[in-house]
Amino acid sequence: MARVVFWILFSFLSFYSQAQTREMEEWISYTKNHKDDSLKAAYLNDLGLIASDYALDEKVYVDEALHLSEKLNITTEKAKALLLRGILQTKQARYDSALINILNAKDLFAKRNVPADIPLHSLYYFSMGNLLLPQGTDNDSTVHYFQSALSYAVQTKDNYLISFCYAGLNTAYSKLRQSDNAIQISRDYIRFAEKTNDTLILAKAYQNMAASYQNANNKELTQEYNNKFRSFLPYLKSPLYQWLAVHNEALALADERKIKEAISLTMEAMKIADEKLPLVKRMETYYLTGYCYFLDNQYSESIKYLLKTKELADTLHAKEYELYAASGLADNYAGLKDFKKAYEYSVMQISLSDSILNEKEKINSNYLFVKYQMAQKEDRIRQQEATIKQKNYLNLLLIGGSCALLIIFLLSYRNYRGKQKLHKQRISELETEQKLNAAQAVLKGEEQERARLAKDLHDGLSGMLSGVKYSLQDMKGNLIMTGENRQAFERSIDMLDSSIKEMRRVAHNMMPEVLVRYGLDAALKDYISEINKSGIINIVYQSMGMAKKEMERSTAIAIYRIVQELLNNVIKHARATEVLVQVFGENGKLVVNVEDNGKGFDTKLSEGQGGMGWKNIRSRVELLKGTVDIHSSPDKGTAVNLEFNIA
């Protein structure tokens, strides 16, 4: 029974992993094929955050997101791109540039206090902790930053961001040699990951726990969690984690001085890195291979791989790996008794070490300066508040009783006006609620009547006409008619046939069976397909995130009627040849865009003296508590954007 449950679980994880990969591919496709807009900038930033897990170059997506958000002046996405760039620059040991980008991002949202900025707060604290960690000068602040990042991430309910922050806090504890804390946060990470049923997050949680136990020198539990991590590899479809499993095993074997087995695995890791991974992973594998050959006293082979490491490190501006390579080369040439080259690389090692230390001192001084400025600013604010408080107290004493009486009078008057305002507001709310209830009742009655008429037409009158048709056809075989009468008889049957088809079409439009059975996405595809078959106009339909979108039937019908009415308006009035209909479902929201290349119109007409069609559209949008945004001008077509909360 346990084996059956195991295979059911991993079948589910395999399916989930494939669905996750498809979602990422949809994001990539959207960023390549759609126009520049805020949604595209958001997708680019999301790809920049997760790119490394899929062996993609995060810099490409982050740079494009920053360029697009600056071009369109999208503050939130610009701040997110700057923070992601800061995290990336910290990986490259470009600490000063990283700090500049992080602080510039903070300036964009620091004065705002809106829920939409919670992910930015999380990424800000993560990037600051990530920046301070390699400096090693303020460990308490480093841990505090990562803990704050995780706290904000939990509020977002974004599983990937939460996972990202758990991994960051675990790395911080590990590098600060706080093994017990690293193991505890890894346990919390695994508990969270198991609730998500996300293959990638589960694998990362187990890999973090394995690393925590390895740092604690617990080989048995390290092996146990490494095995759990490896069990997910067939379902991840990620060359990065295939490489990581082999690379880590090679490192463990090297530490155990099982050099031949370790080198065999580094060659396997190198093949994966060369074919599918960014240069940075190739560099790390070259260095590990050189390290293994050095342990085996094969100095010439070690030098070959360390030179490749140095070359890639120079290309990637990875100074720390340049330092590691120079140190290893010095040791290898010393082993070969080539003391001249050993000395040259020792000098290079010292120079690189000084350069890295200077960079760290620079960032530390900049960080301390910023911290000092913030403290000074807070002190000035407190002093100003104290001064204002003292002045206010003296003014109150001087004004005395007359001011008190005036305040009482003003408060009484304000209270009276406030009650009046609340009373009017309540009346207005009741009137609005009554109007919405009336509109809801009318629309509900209208849909019920449509359904009843559609059923009566389809089941009643359509059946009767079909019966008449079959009776006439039966009579045809029993009657003797002239050629002319036979032609007239045939025309009558054809007209009857056309009437039956037309009646069924009308019944279908009144209440589409596809909508009831298969949902909004299928109904819209079917409806647009029928229009395209008629040749009246060419309509392109696009949908995203609708495959598993569930909504109430009344909501789906109302949105279907809105799109139907918009397309009717285009066909009747716009003189358009092309129409684009887009439907997107994401985070409990449904967005509908209808754009045409027609003659356009004055949008004020739809607000004031618009026809019954626009009134029906607006009443349905109000009923669903949605928003409608219309952009149109003469000879430039029309774009209608609708947004609904359907969670």
Tag the structure with descriptive keywords.
647 residues, 79% helix, five-stranded mixed β-sheet, 5 strands
Write structural notes for this entry.
- The chain has helices at 2-33, 38-50, 58-72, 75-91, 95-109, 118-132, 139-156, 159-175, 179-196, 199-215, 219-231, 233-236, 239-255, 259-276, 279-295, 299-316, 319-335, 339-478, 483-510, 513-518, 520-534, 553-574, 603-607, 612-623; strands at 538-544, 578-586, 589-596, 627-632, 638-645.
- It is built from 24 helices and five strands.
- With 647 residues, the chain is mostly helical.
- The model is unreliable at 1-19 (pLDDT under 50).
- The chain starts with a helix and ends with a strand.
- Helix 22 links the parallel strand 1 and strand 2.
- Helix 1 crosses helix 2, helix 2 packs antiparallel against helix 3 (58-72) and helix 9 (179-196) runs antiparallel to helix 10 (199-215).
- The protein has a five-stranded mixed β-sheet, covered by helices on one side.
Alpha carbon gap, first and last residue: 38 Å
Helix/strand/pairing category: mainly alpha
The biggest beta sheet is recorded as: 5 strands, mixed
Strand content: 5-15%
Name the overall outline. Answer: extended
Helical content class: over 70%
Instruction: Walk across the major sheet and give the strand order.
Output: 1-2-3-5-4
Rounded mean pLDDT is: 77
SS field, number of helical segments: 24
Rounded Rg: 35 Å
Q: How many strands appear in the DSSP assignment? A: 5
What's the SSE pattern? HHHHHHHHHHHHHHHHHHHHHEHEEHHEE
> Segments where pLDDT lies below 50 for 5+ residues?
1-19
